[in-house]
Design brief:
By secondary structure, this protein is of the alpha/beta class. The chain contains 21 helices and ten strands.
């Protein structure tokens, strides 16, 4: 995904967007089938009550008029009709409350269901997707659409109720005069067209504003984050950031107001047309009554039916327009769920070898990142043998971390193969392969959770195994960090939640290292995880690392040659290929690139 085009379109897009509705209805059904059925039954019954009330009211008025004009005594039938009207009114009020309750219940179930689905699907996508800014725009819109489309779901329920009510009222009107119904329809259509047009313009506006709103969210976080606070003060960035936020916010505000202003003017005019249609029909019914064609009961029925039919027609068209245009807003949610990871397990994939016997091999591997023509790795050949400790070194951008990502199959090479025990990594089951790899990246996560949970994420099924967590902390030297915490392993880390305690960079790194040791995998990878440690602490960590990786495959990246020299083999990367490899003594004696970098660093300590 190299980027998303500017949103363009018109009526075709509005109606084609209705294809999104079945997918959303499937989400709704999955979230609560029983609630959906009860809600539909309640709405169908509620839809039939207004026409029934109007007919009973007609019968009551005609009965009263007959009694008055014929001077007959009051008949029991009149009181039965009043009782029926009372019962229908009570039922209508009760059903309204039941429908509101079912809507609230379904809203909670739907929000929960779709939000979980979005999280699960986002986690299943490739790492490469997260490096594309356009993906973040789509993900942000999908997250919003997952919860903000509740109105559309409720609108679908209302549409069903409105259509049934409108049909029954229309039949009542057509019994007396089809022309009355035609007047109502002609009056409502302009308002429907206007509502649809402005709803579409609203979607197009929101689509354009998504990147701007992401910038606003970032600036809002930046202006109030602990991490940025020091530089904001020392570099005097307050006015700069505030000014940028104000400019973008003003742009969004002005676009919103401009659209709202147009909608007020045009919407008022189109509503007046609908009102004129209603009163034309009403005047016609009055004239027919005065001329003796309709009875007073019929006039009452038609007055109520015309008013409600006009209102329901407008609401039906408006609701249909809302659904069509809200469906436009679901385009990104549906497209998001249609995204499929390219890196996934094949059917009947192989399990990872236990034990690994031949190790990993990079065979003529080339790799470039999406949207870039530069090869990070270019025909790389490289072998990691069982029981071997390898250090990768090189300038920034030479592909050290890329090798780690390919070895862990977070990426696939664009050319060549990465093999494990002679078998392409693409043949293995991904989840099973990951179980045999423990890796800590330089940009490791600092979870706003307890110390125990921060370590246990390395092997989450052991989250309640405190002895194993403590053992891993001891290996990474994080036990001293935990010992200083007021609540030990149950201490909340970070400042996001009440009672949380923040750690220094080096302390966080020891916690992160404990995750890798907890995994107890056959392959252990440290991608510059000790950059926040002082030289002595890093040396101690790698001494422990050397002891604990005996008999395992280990790969680490570090810019400090004091730790690199303990590797069995050092691989120097340059221009996407291996420039030199060997142990520390062999490479310093070679007098090449490694010896030059080692001497430059050693000179700074003299």
């Amino acid at each position: 995904m190299s980027g998303e085009p500017e949103f363009r379109g018109g009526w075709r897009e509005r109606f084609s967007a209705l294809r999104n509705v079945p997918a959303v209805l499937r989400f709704v059904w999955e979230s609560g089938p029983t609630v959906v059925v009860l809600g539909l039954v309640s709405r169908v019954i509620a839809a039939l009550l207004p026409p029934a009330l109007f007919w009973v009211s007609k019968l009551i008025i005609d009965t009263i008029f007959h009694i008055l004009t014929t001077h007959q005594p009051i008949q029991p039938r009149l009181w039965w009709l009043v009782a029926v009207e009372f019962g229908l009114a009570v039922a209508a009020g009760a059903l309204g409350r039941v429908i509101d309750y079912l809507d609230a219940l379904l809203a909670g179930k739907y929000t929960h269901h779709v939000s979980v689905r979005v999280m699960e699907h986002a986690a299943s996508l490739d790492l490469m997707a997260y490096e594309d800014p356009a993906f973040y725009d789509r993900l942000e819109r999908a997250r919003v659409q997952a919860t903000d489309r509740l109105y559309m779901i409720q609108a679908i329920g209302r549409l069903i109720q409105q259509v049934i009510t409108t049909i029954t009222l229309s039949i009542s009107i057509m019994v007396f005069s089809p022309w009355l119904l035609l007047l109502l329809v002609v009056g409502v259509i302009p308002a429907f067209v206007g509502e649809t047009h402005f709803a579409f313009l609203g979607y197009a506006k929101n689509f354009r504003q998504t990147p701007i709103r992401r910038q606003l969210d970032y600036l809002r976080i930046l202006g109030g984050s602990k991490e940025a606070a020091k530089e904001l003060k020392l570099f005097g960035l307050k006015d700069f950031l505030t000014g940028r936020f104000k400019g973008l916010s003003t742009q969004v505000y002005e676009e919103d107001i401009a659209l709202a202003r147009r909608k007020v003017v045009a919407g008022g005019f189109l509503t007046a047309i609908g009102t004129a249609g209603y009163y034309t029909a009403y005047v016609f019914a009055v004239w027919r009554t005065v001329t003796g064609v309709f009875s007073f009961g019929t006039l009452t029925l038609l007055a109520n039916a015309i008013r409600e039919a006009s209102s329901n027609l407008q609401q039906t068209f408006s609701t249909l327009s809302t659904i069509a245009d809200q469906a436009l807003f679901l385009t990104d949610l549906i497209a998001f769920f249609e995204m499929r990871p390219t890196i996934q397990s094949k059917p009947n994939a192989l399990l990872a070898p236990r034990p690994i016997r031949r190790g990993f091999e990079f065979r003529n591997v080339s790799f470039r990142y999406p949207g870039s023509s530069r090869l990070i790795l270019n025909g790389l050949n490289f072998h990691l043998h069982p029981g071997e400790r390898i250090a990768l070194i090189g300038e920034n951008g030479e592909g050290k971390t890329t090798i780690v990502k390919l070895l862990t199959r977070l990426y696939d090479p664009v050319e060549g193969q990465v093999l494990l025990d002679g078998v392409d990594l693409r043949e293995y089951n991904l989840e099973d392969l990951y179980r045999e790899i423990g890796v800590i990246f330089q940009d490791f996560m600092r979870y706003e959770m307890t110390a125990r949970e921060n370590i246990a994420v390395g092997k989450i099924e052991q989250i309640d195994n405190l002895p194993l967590v403590e053992q891993s902390a001891q290996k990474s030297m994080a036990e001293d960090v935990v010992a200083k915490l007021p609540s030990g392993y149950e201490q909340m880390l970070g400042r996001r939640f009440d009672g949380g305690v923040d750690l220094s960079g080096g302390e966080w790194q020891k916690i992160a290292l404990a995750r890798a040791y907890l995994r107890d995998a056959q392959v252990l990878i440290l991608d510059e995880p000790t950059s926040a440690l002082d030289a002595r602490s890093e040396y101690e960590v790698f001494q422990r690392f050397a002891e604990l990786t005996t008999g395992k495959m280990a790969l680490f990246i570090s810019h400090r040659f004091s730790t690199v020299r303990m590797a069995d083999r050092i691989v120097v990367l340059e221009n996407g290929r291996i420039a030199e490899e060997g142990n520390h003594d062999a490479l310093t004696n070679l007098g090449g690139r490694y010896a030059e970098m080692f001497e430059l660093q050693a000179a700074s300590y003299r």
